[in-house]
Amino acid sequence: MSGLDNIIKTIRDDAAAEAKAVLDRARESAARRLSEAKAATDSACGRIVEEGQRRADSAGARAESGAAMEKRRTLLAKKQALLDQAVLSAREAVLNMPEGEYFDFLTRLAVENAEQGVGVMFLSKRDLQRLPDGYHAALNRALPDGASLDISATAEPIDGGFVLRYGEIDRNCSLAAIFDENRERILDAAQDALFL
Fold first, then answer.
1. pLDDT tens digits, residue range 48-82?
2. CA-CA-CA-CA dihedral for 104, 108, 114, 119, to nearest 10
3. What's the DSSP call for residue 116?
4. pLDDT tens-digit profile of 29-51?
5. Distance between CA 42 and CA 21 in Å, rounded?
6. How far is CA 43 from CA 29, 38, 48, 56, in A?
7. How many other C-beta atoms can be found within 10 angstroms of the C-beta atom of residue 94?
8. Is 50 helix (H, G, I), strand (E, B) or coil?
9. Which residues contact 134 (CB under 8 A, 6 or more apart)?
10. pTM to 2 decimals?
């Protein structure tokens, strides 16, 4: 393996470890919320079951079936809300990383998405305001040979991450785009963690 391959492997391993840490924090947060939601759901389910029994007493099997269907819908809605919250919590965890970790994450993301030639990185207003001294030089040192990025002084209307521009071609690496692009995979992982 060449030195560049080792660097790329190290960066990918670091990114995977960071992603795992973010997901672990999101799982912990989601587990806490799940515990709280489960108590509320159990209470709601108890009320639904009691209502179903009253309907069953007065209307027979049809009312019992309706109560069971309502319970499933309520549980499904609560599960969906928990999954949506897990995704939101993961995104918030990335946005609220300590500044050094956050900009290291942005550097790794830029290394994975940079193209040959000179591009322009557009950050959010918040990130531009807290940009560490020397970040531009450190970013360019981390990029593969033949790739370089200027950092625009103009903010992009994103919450975090960045947009890379090469001529008239934009590569959206904002957190919103990354989480939207990987939403199904994140939801599957969150569902496995929360409900299995």
1. 668 878 886 777 788 788 888 888 888 878 877 87
2. 0
3. S
4. 666 776 776 776 677 667 766 88
5. 31
6. 22, 8, 9, 20
7. 22
8. helix
9. none
10. 0.56
